[in-house]
Design a protein that fits this description.
- By secondary structure, the chain is α/β, with parallel strands linked by helices.
- It has helices at about 5-10, 10-20, 20-35, 45-50, 80-85, 105-115, 130-140, 160-165, 185-190, 215-220, 250-255, 280-285, 300-310, 315-320, 325-335, 370-375, 400-410; strands spanning about 60, 95, 100, 120-125, 145-150, 155, 160, 170-175, 195-200, 225-230, 260, 275, 340-350, 360-365, 380, 385, 390-395.
- The strands form five sheets. The chain has a seven-stranded mixed sheet, sandwiched between helices. The protein has a four-stranded antiparallel sheet with strand order 13-14-17-16, with helices on one face. A two-stranded parallel ribbon has the order 1-15.
- A hairpin with a 4-residue loop joins strand 2 (about 95) and strand 3 (about 100).
- Helix 2 (about 10-20) packs across helix 3 (about 20-35), helix 3 crosses helix 4 and helix 5 (about 80-85) packs antiparallel against helix 13.
- It starts with a helix and ends with a helix.
- Bound molecules: pyridoxal-5'-phosphate.
- Pyridoxal-5'-phosphate (PLP) binds near residues 154, 201, 232 and 273.
């Protein structure tokens, strides 16, 4: 039977990461299994290696889905990672070093957001976009009505539905229009003394085509109640490659009182919910008792600020790479892998953004058997299966990871 102290020495790296107590417990369990005859004593070490906790692991996203929810949505920029590292100890998140007194929490991140969205009179950050919507409903519509088009009753994913989220606050939904069409008069008839606000939700993960009509933000602003717009993906300004994706600046200029958005979709930052708009309304949101339960931690604030002020984040880099440059990389990689070829393909934005947008892309095409071994590798690579081949779509792989990808494929 391998001795405990010898095993602790050979798993020194794991001890550094997990602590001696955790590793020892795994060792003892493996030894007990060996004593019980379930495994051979020679298998104890490999059993320990297999049973050690891993935590979330780094994965290379070669799916061609730029914002992949199951793979953690936006990868952070090196600047954002460095900022999180710096903020991970004690930090001045809520302290003014110049005066030695308490300061507004996350003030520099909020200032970065305000300067990134000059059309917003006030800005606030919460845990995610769902939290932003929740706070709006709590603050402006509890016991009152939210007027919303039937075509915008969206299920975000994993069974979560925006209408149910809103109703959970005690707000009532006053649905207007039909699945495919809604008119200004529908909204006008619905608005009354019990209206808290009108909500427009971007259908960010589906498209309705054909006989459709919606009402734009500017038309809704004349109805005498606040207009809140959930743009979804967190584009702060229009993006030329995504002409149909709503952005905060345009929505605010059109007259939206509050815009809500995610920080970790097309903005490319940490999970966060952005609240942008009328200064007085934002102040009411910030002052609501529930705001404390939805507040973001210092790491999020640090990463958000670095994303807003720093170099272009990976989401934008991968979105904007030219198809030819991707094909060139695919060709270089394929030339070094027996049985591989470079192919042109189509990638997607994903993650609740720009539904239907096809991004021309290129991939390393491999026999299908690679899919599983790559997923189970030391640095897991997740590709996609298309027509019996395993495609590693380079749209979502940063060029700096090509070498790692190559090593993963060559085993
Ligand atoms: C993604 C999305 C949400 C939810 O955002 P989270 O940041 O995941 O909470 C809400 N509304 C729309 C339109 C979305 O696309």
């Amino acid at each position: 039977m391998p001795r405990t102290d010898a095993l602790l020495v050979s798993f020194a790296d794991a001890v550094r990461v997990h602590g001696a107590a955790t590793v020892k417990a795994v060792i003892v369990t493996a030894q007990q299994r060996a004593r019980a005859g379930e495994i051979a004593p020679s298998e104890v070490a490999s059993q320990v290696a297999a049973a050690l906790p891993t935590g979330p692991r780094r994965v290379i996203n070669a799916t061609g889905v730029v914002v992949h929810t199951n793979l953690g949505r936006a990868p952070l920029s090196p600047a954002a990672r460095a900022a999180m590292d710096a903020a991970s100890g004690t930090t001045d998140v809520e302290f003014d070093l110049a005066t030695g007194t308490r300061a507004r929490r996350g003030r520099s991140a909020l200032a970065a957001l305000a300067s990134a969205v000059p059309d917003a009179g006030g800005v606030h950050v919460v845990n995610n976009n769902a939290a932003a919507l929740l706070l709006c409903a709590l603050a402006f519509a509890a016991g009152r009505e939210i007027v919303i088009s039937r075509g915008e009753l969206v299920e975000i994913g994993d069974g979560f539905r925006i209408p149910e989220l809103l109703r959970s606050t005690g707000a009532r939904l006053h649905e207007v229009g039909t699945t495919n069409r809604v008119h200004l008069r529908d909204y006008a008839e619905a608005v009354g003394p019990s209206t808290g606000f009108i909500l427009k939700v971007h259908p960010s993960n589906f498209q309705v085509t054909g006989f459709t009509s919606t009402v734009d933000i500017a038309s809704l602003t004349g109805l005498g109640v606040p207009v809140i717009v959930d743009i979804g993906s967190g584009l702060l300004a229009p993006h030329p490659l995504l002409p149909d994706e709503p952005d905060a600046a345009t929505a605010l200029r059109a007259g939206a009182d509050i815009v809500t958005a995610s920080g970790d979709k097309l903005l490319g930052g940490p999970q966060a919910g952005l609240l942008l708009g009328d200064a007085d309304l934002v102040e009411r949101l910030r002052g609501h008792p529930a705001a404390r339960a939805l507040r973001v931690d210092k790491l999020t604030l640090a990463a958000l600020e670095a994303t807003l002020r720093g170099p272009i984040p990976p989401v934008r880099q991968t979105l904007e790479a030219s198809a030819d440059s991707l094909f060139e990389r695919a060709s270089l990689l394929a030339a070094q892998i027996p049985g591989a070829e470079a192919v042109r393909c189509v990638a997607a934005v994903g993650g609740g953004g720009a539904p239907g947008v096809e991004l021309p892309s290129a991939a390393v095409s491999l026999p299908m058997e690679y899919a599983e071994s790559l997923r189970l590798g030391e640095i897991p690579v997740v590709g996609r299966i298309e027509r019996g081949r395993c495609l590693l779509d380079l749209r979502t792989v940063l060029p700096s990871d090509d070498e790692l990808l190559l090593r993963a494929v060559l085993g």
